[in-house]
Specification:
This is Inosine-5-monophosphate dehydrogenase. By secondary structure, the chain is an alpha+beta fold. It contains five helices and five strands. The radius of gyration is 18 Å and the shape is elongated.
């Protein structure tokens, strides 16, 4: 299975936020949309960074509640690991595990086309394992 197949099932909508938005705005967006990270983009198409719940927690731990007034660009991860649609899910899962991050923007020709979370990856992997187990049961029984 590839990232293309995951995006076909879940859709390619990606939530983005301007680098000048505040951490409070970002936290509100994450809570409202029930997501764990937001792609930071000045133009809605290029990936300038990514901001996760962990980044917000780190900011508050260091600067207290006043951190929520800071711009997203002060706390975002600037060197974002991205992938293309043709990447295999198993390879992406390994990249996410090694890098200890849970969200990977999907980029083609320099433009944001989707995002994949560890939840998306695990969901598809579990479904594949269950399908394989069912086929084995049917083979053995049949």
């Amino acid at each position: 299975m590839t990232v293309r197949q995951v995006l076909a099932e879940k859709g390619g909508e990606v939530v983005t936020l301007s680098p000048t938005s505040s951490l409070a705005e970002a936290a509100h967006m994450l809570a409202q949309r029930r997501i764990g990270a937001v792609v930071v983009s000045a133009d809605g198409g290029r990936v300038d960074g990514i901001l996760s719940e962990r980044d917000i927690v780190r900011a508050i731990a260091r600067d207290g509640a006043s951190a929520l007034d800071a711009p997203v660009e002060a706390w975002m991860t600037r060197e974002v690991v991205t992938c293309a649609r043709e990447v295999a899910i198993d390879d992406l899962m390994q990249t996410m595990t090694q890098g200890k991050f849970r969200h990977v923007p999907v980029v083609e020709d320099g433009r944001l086309v989707g995002i994949v979370s560890i939840g998306d990856v695990v969901k598809r992997r579990v479904a594949a394992i269950e399908a394989e187990a069912q086929m084995l049961k049917e083979y053995i029984a049949g």
